[in-house]
Write a structure and sequence with these properties.
homodimer, about 750 residues, Rossmann fold, seven-stranded parallel β-sheet, five-stranded parallel β-sheet, 21 strands, about 15% strand
């Protein structure tokens, strides 16, 4: 194991500094060095050490393990280990061990493999750079994966982040009857890059107290001497594995009512471990990063070369690789068979294991159109909630709902709780209750924790929905961007199989009663539109049929991120499920039944368009827009109005910005350039400008949306304050008609007096 | 104290349900009830109980205390207590105790006082709805306020959030020599609205272990019987106050090297305490919220009225108020003198205490223009860093820097660390080190914690800067929105005095080397632009002089939020400090020295504009744009080019969207509608469309910005990939010229061949 660790350390250090002389058989010269240093050393020896010891555990006990690495700058360790495991062939096929491969490995690092190539590293589901999500990713991956153990390395910096701090409680949400286990390894070296970390000043007694309080059984492994640490860590790993086995055993023993505590290893080693102790009198190991070396390089090249040479040789290269660069049998002794290696873990390439979601036929949840309903406002939301209930019933351990907002989900989801329940944080094993109602809803009052859990769940091959409120979805803006990056880059890697889409169901919207109005702040949709990877889609179904169809599409989709805004106060029935399906597929349609164009098809293709285009996006704007059309048609029956409904917002974008965007000629067919148009949009006004972008040029149009105006008590007043009500929409349409006659003026007056009368 | 608590509970319950019969001297009828229930009861009795007990502590020990209330739905408790304290006059002046005032208090709740009126509640610095920021707000408020104790109430739900979970470590960042103290009271009732909370399943032994590990001295107060809880809580409060006194004493004893632990009270009472035990056989107290009552109302009005009547009378109203509605002496006995009341806490109206920041004259940090500099690229950033250093030196305990990103701040801020240091989390009191270098930099690896700390610091009357990296600033999008709401609403309340602006200094930008490119995700600027309150400003200074001037302006400003993007790799010297000041004040200027218009003034005002307008926003785009102008002038010397530089992005918005926005006629003067224009923008391309919005209509323009394209290794390649380099900008300009002649075509060819040659 000593040798394996040295081999991993050597390969990592080589990646950072070398571009030649891969086996160090020659004296080190400047020609062997890279021009730039792309990583630092701080966390690498720790990751390698844990990797080595996990290998032994896996091999000895035939465990299926996954490794989630929290600390940034750890790529070189993971890539080096993938080399040792043999999974490196995925990174750079074809691949054959030996001197040339090591040289290639070294040369590629920082150029071909780095940074935005993280999905290219086999065995990982965790992108770097923004810290805090590792433990939630690990827990998400072991949900409903009884045989999987996810080891999660958490550094000082990561432990200081908000999301990770909230994640300490997550093992209490694991059910030993159906879920796997996590093994957190907190790798403490006192620093977060340059400053002291929040955990750094706690004594071992306090750390023990803290993690015991959090529900863990802590094992502290501390030292700077590798021999000692190897011994202590091996012991701690064995005990932790025993603990996890005990938890599994208890699960199958119906007498056991309280599960054992989750093990956690606190590994305290020096920062920059195994590096030079001192450089020019300044401490290196225990305080700093490899980047310091590059500064030294400027000052004294000879000294630098000698130091680096000594450091590289300290790993006793000849005991690791033969002269052809093949790994010797001793360091390879504990490497598991390929399918059990950490870098080969199939759960980290979830698409491999993914089973299709079973979806009930939508028609059973079909909504009557308004015409055949007695009370069009009745049974709001129920079709979707019943549909979700059936999906839960059909899919066993393959589907979960995640939600941070208990109150809203309680109202919205009420029907599903007849067959399922929320996952409770507990150390009791309540077999009866869980048999009766499997817990498929994870509710944790942290949006970022929920997002990371679902990411982990999807990336390990399952299906899910994130039910959030539009009021608070901007809490995950940065994670949305990061996940979009991951998804789009992973899609380019052929051995990564497709994973289910990440679906947001946004309820409790901007237009909800006063609670929402006061607490809404912008950000989510704007950031989603700004994503340039084209994997992010925004849906605003205007009625229950379209909502069902959109939800079905999103649940079937892979490798993308979808947001569906569901207005809890409006589930109109404009379309049948069948019509909704067509509409959802098109993304936007001309609703000829609502407009006053005589022959739609002809008009679209002919040069002469309608007098006006009225376009709506979202349930409430659509309801108001259709009323506006009624008003206009009542007052000015001769007006030729085209009604367009947009359900897939990105359709309005230029194809340059989103692959779903309509081509210019198709866009111009639907929105003829010389015909004035009114847009009524569910979200913040500025977003629709962003979406239309250059398409605004040279057009006469008026855009209405949420302007951040608050109004008390009623939706109507709120709509009026934001000028998105039927009257303002009708007036906006007339304002665009460039004609100065008495009829128009009197039409405006009629609308104004209607407005005073109210809805 | 029993009576004070009852009075507070009665006033809160009255606010929720009553609009008449304020002293319950008549039998309760439907006419006395509000049509809607605006709050729930879950957390109110607990807040009131803590308030009552803090009153006693304050009065007995003459303490200056502030109360920060985490749980949502607590407004009715705070407003009721403000009534009892006498501070209610601020909410509804003029004010005189008595029956009518109580009726008015009840009637206003949910209508005049609620939700977005939170800044109207005296004594608070904490807006509701998005949980998690209370403890960081409290710690921010006691930084550099040695005599202040902030009691912070944290509920089950809040304790589950990410930011609060990370905040548990914050007391370790308090320095007893100069900072005040916090007293967290964790109010546990097992539930977060509808589901079990993460802390709910922990035994008292585990809770004790957890909080001991986190560095606290925990006191558990548990019970459902009010008498018992009063007794236990009084004891715990006394012990906590003793602990805080001990910490203060130790601070003045130079022999003491380790401070005592921070006290924390864990208060476990039933949810909905003092409410009906059962309603129709279903438990109410201990499980649910007052909203349940409203559902009951639908079912059985008589039962509902009787139940509510019994509940209201359970507070023994006649022992609280006389027949005229005046508070009787007994419940009033422990209310402190007005200036010490929690609702009258001057620190919660920080503008009252705010002292102006001392700013050194900018000219001392003046930057030479490029012309008189030997190496224009030298001394990057140093002027601003030295300026900040001097501000730290001048302002003692009145100014702090907050930063989540140690690495970046370390490089950028290096010069300041000769006189200051980072605040270390510790329980040691290192007097010598702190005497030598006062710790004025708070670095915690959580963006949301840093944001909340600075909010608390500013709202309690001090000054500060948040140094973040543009790569990660989208982590605080939701908090930005919430703080903007607070600031804009607080500005409308006349007793709230102006507080210093919240200033973001965004370093390590989209255009930083590859590390940044791979980790950038959009969101911050888009969300800032979407804020409709007009208090959010985005600055993109293009050179060092303008940067200094903008920083000065932002530090002087009050009641707003400013973001300054500082590109770490570009500190050009286009303007002197004096010119920078003028430019910063104008927000955007025509740089006639860079353009080729002959007589700027004449042109602006005459109908005939230039042939082209080239406009840049941000340091790197400006550098490229000026090079593009050089190229164009070299190739087509007869072209009349206007160069516009924008430092204050919001100037480009319509005044309807931002108060700084240019009026249409002024905008048309600078950007004549018939003159094609190229915009080169620092940030995401979509943002500039959002900013220009309707102004795009009918114009010929080309917008270049960050398109999310990654390129390896160099800024130049990165610029080219995003088409923001000098050559693409020059070509974009020529593309806009609607002329089909050979000269133009050959000009394009020359530029293309220049591009191939490279920079």
């Amino acid at each position: 194991m000593r040798l394996h660790w040295r081999a991993a350390n050597y390969l990592a250090l080589g990646q950072i500094f070398l571009r030649g002389n891969p086996l160090m058989r020659e004296a080190l010269t400047l020609d062997h060095l890279k021009d730039e240093v792309f990583s630092c050393w701080g966390t690498i020896p720790g990751i390698n050490l844990i990797y080595t010891h996990l290998n032994r555990l896996i091999k000895q006990r035939s465990l299926q393990m996954m490794l989630v690495v929290g600390p940034g700058h750890g790529c070189a360790a993971l890539i080096g280990n993938a080399y040792l495991d043999g999974s490196y062939s995925r990174l750079d096929p074809p691949f054959k061990q030996g001197r040339d491969s090591i040289e290639r490995l070294f040369c590629r690092f920082g150029y071909q493999t780095f940074a935005h190539d993280v999905p290219a590293i086999p065995g990982t589901i965790q992108s770097g750079y923004e810290l805090g999500y590792s433990l939630a990713h690990a827990v998400g991956a072991v949900f409903d994966n009884k045989d999987l153990i996810a080891c999660c390395i958490i550094g000082d910096g990561e432990a200081e982040t908000a999301t990770l701090s909230a994640s300490w409680h997550l093992p209490a949400y694991l059910n030993p009857l159906t879920d796997g286990a996590v093994l957190p390894v907190v790798h403490l070296n006192q620093y977060k890059i340059a400053a002291r970390s929040s955990l750094s000043y706690l004594s071992n007694a306090r750390l023990t107290s803290l993690f015991t309080g959090l529900g863990y059984k802590p094992y502290i492994v501390e030292g700077a001497d590798p021999e000692l640490v190897h011994m202590l860590l091996a012991g701690a790993m064995d005990q932790a594995a025993d603990d996890i086995e005990a938890i599994r055993r208890e699960a199958s023993d119906r007498e056991v009512k309280v599960r054992s505590l989750c093990p956690i290893i606190l590994l305290k080693t020096p920062k920059g471990w195994t590096g030079p102790k001192l450089i020019s009198g300044e401490p290196f190991e225990g305080s700093a990063t490899a980047l310091k070396l590059q500064r030294l390089f400027m000052a004294d090249v000879d000294f630098y070369l000698k130091l680096l040479e000594r450091w590289l040789h300290s790993y006793t290269i000849k005991s690791l690789f033969d002269s052809a660069g093949h790994l010797l049998p001793e360091p390879a002794a504990w490497i598991p068979e390929e399918k059990l290696t950490l870098s080969g873990c199939p759960h980290a390439n979830g698409g491999l294991l993914r089973e299709e979601l079973k979806l009930p036929p939508l028609e059973e949840y079909g909504v009557e159109t308004d015409a055949d309903r007695e009370d069009p406002a009745s049974e709001r939301h129920l079709p979707l909630a019943f549909y979700l209930r059936e999906i839960i019933a059909l899919n066993g351990l393959n589907f979960r709902l995640f939600s941070s907002d208990c109150n809203n989900s309680a109202l919205f989801l009420a029907p599903i709780f007849s067959i399922t329940q929320r996952v409770s944080p507990t150390d009791e094993i309540d077999r009866e209750r869980l048999d009766e109602k499997p817990a498929r809803v994870v509710e944790i009052l942290s949006q970022t924790v929920c997002q990371a859990l679902l990411e982990g769940y999807l990336l390990s091959g399952r299906h899910g929905l994130y039910i959030c409120s539009e009021q608070h979805s901007n809490l995950v803006v940065s994670m949305l961007g990061r996940y979009a990056n991951w998804i789009s880059r992973a899609a380019e890697i052929d051995w990564r199989k497709e994973v289910s889409s990440f679906n947001y169901l946004q309820i409790s919207t901007l237009w909800s009663p006063k609670l929402a109005q006061a607490s809404c702040t912008p950000g989510f949709a704007a950031a989603a539109i700004e994503q340039r990877s084209g994997v992010t889609n925004l849906f605003f179904p205007a009625d229950a049929g379209t909502l069902l169809a959109v939800t079905e599409n999103c649940l079937k989709a892979t490798n993308c991120i979808n947001s569906i805004v569901v207005d809890a106060h409006s589930q109109d029935g404009w379309l049948t499920v069948g019509q909704g399906r067509k509409h959802a597929a098109a993304g936007l349609s001309i609703w000829s039944w609502a407009g006053s164009e005589k022959e739609e098809k002809e008009k679209v293709e002919s040069a002469s368009g309608p007098d006006l285009v009225l376009c709506s996006v979202g349930a409430i704007p659509t309801r108001e827009m259709l009323q506006a059309v009624k008003i206009l048609r009542g007052i000015l029956p001769q007006l030729s109005i085209r009604v367009v409904n947009v359900v897939w917002l990105n359709k309005l974008q230029s194809p340059e910005f989103h692959p779903a965007g309509l081509e210019a000629d198709r866009f111009d067919q639907i929105f003829p350039p010389d015909v004035p148009a009114v847009f009524a949009y569910h979200g913040y006004l500025t977003e629709i400008y962003t979406v239309l972008g250059e398409r605004l040029e040279g057009r006469r149009l008026k855009v209405k949306g949420y302007r951040g105006c608050y109004a008390d008590s009623s939706l109507q007043n709120h709509l009026i304050a934001n000028e998105l009500d039927r009257f303002h929409l009708a007036l906006a349409a007339l304002d665009l008609i460039d004609r100065n006659d008495g009829q128009l003026a009197s039409a405006k007056d009629s609308i104004k007096s209607l407005m005073i009368e109210g809805f």
